[in-house]
Design a protein that fits this description.
By secondary structure, the chain is mainly α. The protein has 2 helices and no strands. The chain has a domain at 25-68.
Length: 68
C-alpha cells in the first residue's frame, strides 16, 4: 500500500473513532475546573501553614533565625 493511501486510511480511522468519543458538557468542564481550583487553593493553604509551623519549630529548636 502506498504511503499516501496509508495516511488517508489513518485519517479516516481517526475520524471514525472521534465520532465515538463522548465529550463532556460545558457544565461538567466548568464544575471540574472549579473543583480543581478549590483543591489547589486548599493544598496551597495547607502547605503554607505546615511550612510556617515547621519554620517556627526550627527557630525554637535552633534558636534565632532560620531560613525564611
Amino acid at each position: 500500500m502506498h504511503w499516501l493511501q496509508q495516511w488517508v486510511k489513518f485519517l479516516r480511522d481517526v475520524r471514525q473513532e472521534m465520532r465515538k468519543v463522548t465529550w463532556p458538557t460545558h457544565r461538567d468542564v466548568l464544575l471540574s475546573s472549579v473543583l480543581v481550583g478549590i483543591l489547589a487553593g486548599a493544598s496551597a493553604g495547607y502547605f503554607f501553614f505546615v511550612d510556617s509551623f515547621l519554620i517556627m519549630i526550627l527557630q525554637l529548636v535552633l534558636g534565632g533565625e532560620y531560613g525564611g
